Amino acid sequence: MSNIRMVFKMLCQHIIFPFVYFVNRFRPIDKKLVILADAHHDGCPEHMSYLRAKLMETDLKVEECFFNIYTIGKWEAFKQMVSFMAKYPTASTVVVCDYFLPVASCNKKKKTKVVQLWHGCGAFKKFGYNSKEDIPEGYHGNVHKNYSMVTVSGEAAVKPFETAMILGADNVIKPMGVSFTDRLYDENYIGLCKDKFRFEHPDASGKQVILWAPTFRGNAKKKKDEINVTPGEAYVNLLAQDDRYYLIKSLHPHLHKQGTMTTGELLCCADLLITDYSSVFFEYLLMDKPIIFFAPDYDVYSAGRGFYLDYKTLPGVVLTLDTDLRPHVEEALENDEYSETRAEYRDRYMAACDGCATKRIVDYIIG
Q1: Domain membership of residue 334 as a residue range
Q2: Cβ–Cβ under 8 Å, residues 16 and 22
Q3: Taking Cα atoms as reference points, which of 118, 113, 110 lies closest to residue 165?
Q4: Distance (Å, whole) CA 324 – CA 66
């Protein structure tokens, strides 16, 4: 069965999708048409929502192609992709924020721009062609082909993205800022997040909020009865026993999720972040609050995927062995020693995230 799936994927990549594009490539480009596309969410991804809202305020014609390839079924996903390929030749701009294979399945028209927002800031753990885990098995070619621009959060992220996407020679990796970080400069957005948190978590009143947001491990296509164990969770759970703290967990959507708030919304409400290898810490740098890097499986994980930076010099307490987190949390909240280090990381990796990234991207799309 796996061989049949692989053959079908190859047919889509090399024959079906290019053919659909070719049949429609003689249709003129609509200079107002912008297509927002993603194959990992049923609706607009959080990382694209801020840009979507700003595009809706222009006179551009915004169309959406959002579906979750893991939940809607292979046939329905195939139909969605074919539909996208028929519109692709007529679009002035296509915007994605993750891997979206149809975009790279053919040689696009030069006048169609493809903007990759990506879904994380900085450059932390290795990804793309720097990692053996990210590129679909049996895929031939570059899944990042056809990008006109990839937006990154700062100058220090350019080189890692160039190698991860094999786009160094094309000069398309631009430190224009990451659109979804603009919300952290929006006082109304932050206020709404805090109101939502108080409503969903009334027991947190009077306590310091600890957000645990580890990176995703495992297979997004896992069955419902399969369990993904996150290293160190037992020690994280001990924090909930301390009356001074309110522990909130924000794991990958394919795993357990506590409440309805997204990780991005929770960042606005947390007094301290605990993570292991998630790039969410770059976003949290804009909040300028303490961070603990807790990675009991560091030796195994680093040997497998690897990092773009020295893990031991991260801007916060670094713990790579199983340990009781409570004394480290207490110390971090009462005696924050990493403010200067966080500022250095912000300058290196987040300098373009100044609250105006979305405007710059919209201006590029409008041309």
Answers
A1: 187-349
A2: no
A3: 118
A4: 42
